[in-house]
Amino acid sequence: MSIPTMPIQESKSLRAARESLTNQRRGFRALLPFLGPAFIASVAYIDPGNYATNIQSGSEFGYKLLWVVVLANLMAMLIQNMSAKLGIATGHNLPELCRMHFPKPVSVGLWIFSEIAAMATDLAEFLGATLGLNLLFGIPMLVGTVVTGIATYAILTLERFGFRPMEKFIGALVILIGVCYIAETAFSHPSMGQVVYHSVVPWIGNRDSVLLAVSVIGATVMPHVVYLHSGLTQNRVVARNDVEKKKIHSFGTKEVIIAMSIAGLINISMMYMAASVFHGTGHTGVASISTAYKTLTPLLGPASAAVFLVSLLASGFSSSAVGTMAGQVIMQGFVGFTIPVWVRRVVTMVPTVIIVALGVDPTQTLVLSQALLSLVLPMPVITLIYFARRKDIMGVLVNKRYLTVLAALCAVMIVVLNVYLLVQTFVNP
Predict the structure, then answer these.
(1) Is 3 within the bounds of a domain?
(2) HEC secondary structure over the chain
(3) What is the pLDDT of residues 189-232, one digit of tens each?
(4) CATH number of the structural domain spanning residue 124
(5) Domain carrying residue 400
(6) pLDDT tens-digit profile of 132-141?
(7) Total structural domains in the chain?
(8) What are phi and psi of 97, to 5 degrees?
(9) Is residue 71 situated within a structural domain?
(10) Is residue 98 part of a domain?
(11) Is 224 domain-assigned?
(12) Which end of the chain is more exposed for a tag (fewer CB within 10 A), N or C?
């Protein structure tokens, strides 16, 4: 029997990581081998669900909900950094720790809710990519779902060559989306004074704005990547002692800040583009991605509309692949078994195919799916806080008290927003 060998590219990356840990590399060169996991996680923060919620928020309420994007992104930085640290400290991902430390009924219950969240996520990502194909190339929606499924499966096959090719490809797509929104900023000429003011000054408004605010949080802080990030770091570079654990976590923190900052700026630019182009010109009823595309063409020209769709396609393809990766981590971690990637890819396509076949409005479906994600979000966040504060599990990387308090405040805020949303929706309709 032949001895399995590590892919050459991955072996080089690990060798470079060891050089960084032993101070043979310094500065940005030392950080380079550790760039990857947070960029994969960041894709979930700029998926098509973000397009739907940010466009609707910007067109209807102008710049006023930008503060929600900023707040959600700060929460994302904290939560994703904790998730990455959990994998580094324990060598296990969050679902595995739940299975190891919780009673079986609790673990199974968490798995079921997490699978619902993963399906809601996949619905948003699949719909976004399918809609992009339809608008950009005129591909029928049903055919587009098949093309999207094939494209995302092709991306997932990169994993057979090690973690580095996947990380580089996903990172390149994130950069492409960022470049697209730099171009959209140049096209749309937003009021930077309004952008800065509303990024830091909260505004609540009415029930509709609260629904969108909760949807923005649901689209930004994603339950499935809270689970996934710990899986991406758990065995990527294995620390040989506590000193190396601290160094790896330090590099991971820097990567989270970089990747989440890029994702946050993209989300902010999505909303202020909609605020400037749609709300600023009286098009406050732009509540769908297709309407946004059709309205952009006469307002800013076909180039702007094409750039918008290219970014949407890059978002849909990359986030759909990441969603499938998260689904595998969730299933294997919580219940100890997994299914072939192509089976999960086919099964999770079914809700999207049904939505498309029924002719349901894609953007409204995206917004509602993000609200559902926000309702599920407290579960992984609370379990993450529980494990990250336990020294017997985390060792030298145990959360400091102030981090636990901040994370708990994030969880409370999410729960309060969700309770308010449910009351306004069902008690005071």
Answers:
(1) no
(2) CCCCCCCHHHHHHHHHHHHHHCCCCCCHHHHHHHCCHHHHHHHHHHCHHHHHHHHHHHHHHCCCCHHHHHHHHHHHHHHHHHHHHHHHHHCCCHHHHHHHHCCHHHHHHHHHHHHHHHHHHHHHHHHHHHHHHHHHHCCCHHHHHHHHHHHHHHHHHHHHHCHHHHHHHHHHHHHHHHHHHHHHHHHHCCCHHHHHHHHHCCCCCCHHHHHHHHHHHHHHCCHHHHHHHHHHHCCCCCCCCHHHHHHHHHHHHHHHHHHHHHHHHHHHHHHHHHHHHCHHHCCCCCCCHHHHHHHHHHHHCHHHHHHHHHHHHHHHHHHHHHHHHHHHHHHHHHHCCCCCHHHHHHHHHHHHHHHHHHCCCHHHHHHHHHHHHHHHCHHHHHHHHHHHCCHHHHHHHCCCHHHHHHHHHHHHHHHHHHHHHHHHHHHCC
(3) 899 999 999 999 988 877 778 777 877 776 667 778 889 999 99
(4) 1.20.1740.10
(5) 10-17+34-274+284-427
(6) 888 888 888 8
(7) 1
(8) -65, -35
(9) yes
(10) yes
(11) yes
(12) N
Residue with tokens 């090719």: 165
